[in-house]
Amino acid sequence: MTLTQGQMIGKRYRVVSLLGQGGMGAVYRAWDTRLNIPVALKEMIPQPGLDPQTLAQLRQQFQQEAQVLARLKHNYLVSVTDFFEERGNAYLAMEFVQGENLAERIEREGALPEEQVTAWAKQLLDALAYCHSQGIIHRDVKPQNVIITPEGAPPDARGGAVLVDFGLVKLWDPNDPRTKTAMRGMGTPEYAPPEQYSVRGQHTDPRSDIYSLGATLYHALTGQAPLTATERMADPSDFMPPRRLNLQVSAPMEATVLRAMKLPRDERFDNTQEMAAALEDGAPGPARPTVAPKRKPRPKHQATKVLPKSQQAILPRKRHIPVWAWAVGGIIALALVAAAAFGIIQTSRSALMAVVKPTPTSSPVSPIARSLTACPLFVSNRDGKREIYYLTEQGELVRITHTPSDSESWSPVPMPDGAIIFTSNRDNKREIYHLAETGDVTRITNTPGNGESWEPAPMLDGSILFTSDRDGKREIYHLSAEGEIVQITNTASDGESWGPSSTPDGDILFTSDRDGKREVHHLAAEGEVVQITNTPGDGESWGPSSTPNGDILFTSDRNGKREIYHLTGTGNVTRITNTPGNSESWDPVLTPDGVIFLTSNRGGKREVYHLTAEGEIVQITNTPGNSESWSPTQ
Question: Exposure check for the chain: N or C terminus, fewer CB within 10 A?
């Protein structure tokens, strides 16, 4: 029956509210009028139509759950204080644990910080170790059965993870793994190991709880429930390691979770102590994504075409094998694809470079001889004005632009063949230029009137995107390999669009204030514009860049200052920098070999930093005096 608020049950408990309800029962918050403490009251509600024998067995199993839990005393386990029957129904009175379950926390916040998840994992492992020492296997570890207590609440003043609901508990004897189950059931498929479904005589043991805990940690770290064991067995390639879903997960943590979730029991941790030791040895840190290298622009100038708003960005684009695949030269499995793709690209470039080419400027520029695996290009005013520099792998500083008179050069973007495109005002206003390996500089935009063009971004087909105000406000334009310029955003009202970048599948990311403040937007090849960040309050988000799997890095001040964030394909947002004090971090870039560079003023002025796979921030530039270095690109 459904209990109502204020109803007395068991001559002792006054019902306060319904906490939750499932197929086999309901849980209420109640008040123990004898001890004057809150309790959780669990009511068994069997399915209608059960025969008397099955109903009697369920009641016996429910009572056995009470007896099992009553003998367990641990900080991170819920305690049972009473068992009784009334009006044909059975009830458990349990310690009331203040807080929310982990599933609710994940639903509200998405992927959770690794440091916090690690602390909870250690608490849960401690609780499971105690259970296993008492001959008990939980068999239903999952986010819904983990209560996260707030700071200041027991059992841990810092906030702890308490394991609840032993409805599928198994009494386990190491000498006889076939000992009986107190409450029969399969568990929740996403967190249940394959042996829990077995019809071939396999039996659960402590390693089954280790699998379920690993799956729970996977969900907490990524914001996504894992595939079921049966789905993974059907197609192992569908299973995504945590670092593919959340750049902030460290390699040691990923290794721990993946080992816990091994399908064969013998490949998992042997016991909870071994898994706890693996967590203790690991160190949190962000993953290392890769980025697609870009291809060379094609200099030619023609009149601008403007697409009507109803046809924005319907651009003819070929879908290629992702170019990042051949940039990461160490991936041997892609070597043959890389060679073939590179050959095609070289042929295409040779043909297209025969198109009309503007006269190069006469400004002196250093010939380029840099490696894509070297430190990034960056902008610095160390010589009194903005110029483009890079660091060799040996740490040698090389200035590669020498802009005449008071003019400057900035926003460089490297090409796989060693060339660079960048923005400069060397001809009295901002235009986009091409710097060949020989040092020749060619202007590739010729904006009419007082308009300007800047922020170049290559696309996979060899064309480039850029920002221009040639029609009175900032919009994004596309320069084809044949030299045709097309306006691809047509922002309504007073809004503008700028800062384009391309995704591995040929779509476009950009920043726009079309809805009153800066947010990141996505423009598909079919022309649909979608706002993909929704920054709370007065915060804004901007400067997107795409990872090969479709995730996005961007800068946001959503927490009061600029930090770098990671947005997964499922919409989970996690912060990957935590700059001390009032300092900030922004402008992330991903190198082909998976290194993250960024700009930060954590040392008092802008410098370029490297974010290691272990989460360490390393300063790369050390600009003399009051000069600064910023905007790394690779």
Answer: N
